[in-house]
Amino acid sequence: MIKKILLTVALAFSMQANEIKKVDTLVLSGPMASVSHPLLRMIETGALNDVAKNVKFVMWKSPDELRALTLRGNADFIAVPTNVGANLYNKGVDIKLLNVSVWGILGMITRDKTKKTLADFKGCEIAMPFRADMPDIVFEEIAKKQGLDPKKDFKLRYVGSPIDAMQMLVMRRVDHALLAEPAISMALRKTNSFPLKLIAPDLYRSSDLQKEWGKVFKVEGKIPQAGMAVIGQKDPYIVKRFNEEYTKALKWYKTHPKEAGVLVNKYIPMLLPEAVEDSLSYVQLDDVSAKDAQKDLEFFFEILKNNNPKTIGGKLPDSGFYQ
Questions:
Q1: Domain range 2-103+225-321, its CATH number among 3.90.700.10, 3.90.650.10, 3.40.190.10, 1.20.1250.20
Q2: Is there a contact between 169 and 254 (Cβ–Cβ < 8 Å)?
Q3: pTM exceeds cut of 0.90
C-alpha cells in the first residue's frame, strides 16, 4: 500500500514536470563577482534544460546596468545587491528576492602591511567602487559607527567597478582600495603577492569589512549583501527549479574551488582561474531563502534607512519582497 502511494506521488510530480511548457529562453544575469558563479555552473551543466529551451548568462558591470536590465525586463533571474533589490521593489518594480547567498566578500587591500583596521586608513586615498552602492554603503556605515566621517576623514576615489579599482592598484595609481572578491585575489595574483612573496610583497590583505561590521554593531560578522531575485511573473515551477539548481550549483562551487576557477574563467576570461580558487577561502557564501534571511535583512535595511533612506527606496520593503 505504501509503495503504491509513493508511486502515485512520484507519478504526479513527473506529470507536473512534463506538463510544464518549456519557455524559449531564460536569461540569468549578474556581475562578475561570486554571487554569479553558480549561474555559470547551472548553464554549463544544463541544469534548467527541463524548463527552458535556451538558458544564457548576461553580465552586468555596474548597479546602473543592473537597474536597466531589471526595468526593461531583459533578465528573468538576476543577482542583486540586497539594498538595490529593496530599492527597486519600493519603487514599484516587479522584483522579488529569492535568497541571500553572499554574506561576506568585501575587504581592504593595501601596500602598507601595518594597516589592519578601517580606522588605520584615516587620511588615506582609497579607490572605492560603486559610489552610493553596496561597497560604499558598508564602508560608510562602519566608519560612522567608529566615529569617523567617511567624506572628511578619507580621500575616497570613486571608480566604476571593483576590477577598475584592482587595476589602479596593480598600476600603482593608488595604494589602497576597497574590493569585492574575487578582485582582491586577482590583485594579489597579478602582483605576485599571493602566496606571499618571501621578500616585500606588493600588496596585503587588510581589514575584513564583515568582521568590522560585526564588532561595531555587536552582531555576527556577516552582512546580507547579495542574492538572487526573480523579475516579473514566472511560473512557480520554474522558480522552484531555479532555486533547487542554484542551491546545488553553489554547493558545488564552494566544494570544487579548482574546477570552479576553470569554469568561471571560461565564461569571464578576465578572472584568473587561480584567483577564483584563492577567493573561495575568503568569502562567506551560504544559500539562505529570502524569507529565512528576512530578520538579518531588516536589521541591515534599518541601519541604511536611518542613515540614508534613499539606498533602499525610503522604507523597509514589505513582506511581499521576500519570495
A1: 3.40.190.10
A2: no
A3: no
pLDDT (tens digit, 9 = 90+) per residue, 53-101? 999 999 999 888 999 999 999 999 999 999 999 999 999 999 999 999 9
Q: Given a cut of 70, is residue 1 above it in pLDDT?
A: no
Within the chain, all domains assigned CATH 3.40.190.10 are found at: 2-103+225-321, 106-217
pLDDT digits (tens, 9 = 90+) for 63-72: 889 999 999 9
223: left (phi over 0), alpha (psi -120 to 50) or beta: beta
Q: Is the dihedral of CA 262, 264, 267, 272 positive or negative?
A: negative
The reply to whether omega before 38 is within 30° of 0 (cis) is no
C-alpha span between 182 and 247 (Å, rounded): 20
- Report how far Cα 181 is from the mean position of its chain's Cα atoms: 9
Residues 6+ apart with CB under 8 A from 231: 70, 73, 75, 76, 77, 78, 93, 94, 95
In 3-state terms the chain splits into helix, strand, coil percentages (rounded to 5) of 45, 20, 35
For residues 209 and 139, the answer to whether their CB atoms sit within 8 Å is yes
Give residue 7's pLDDT: 52
Surface-to-core class of residue 126, CB atoms within 10 Å of its CB (0-12 exposed, 13-18 middle, 19+ buried): buried
Read off φ and ψ for residue 63, nearest 5 degrees: -60, -30
Class of domain 106-217: alpha beta
* Other residues' Cβ atoms within 10 Å of the Cβ of residue 208: 19
Q: Residue 283, exposed/middle/buried by CB under 10 A (0-12, 13-18, 19+)? A: buried
Write the CB contacts of 219 (distance below 8 Å, at least 6 apart in sequence): 213, 299
60, three cell numbers:
552586468
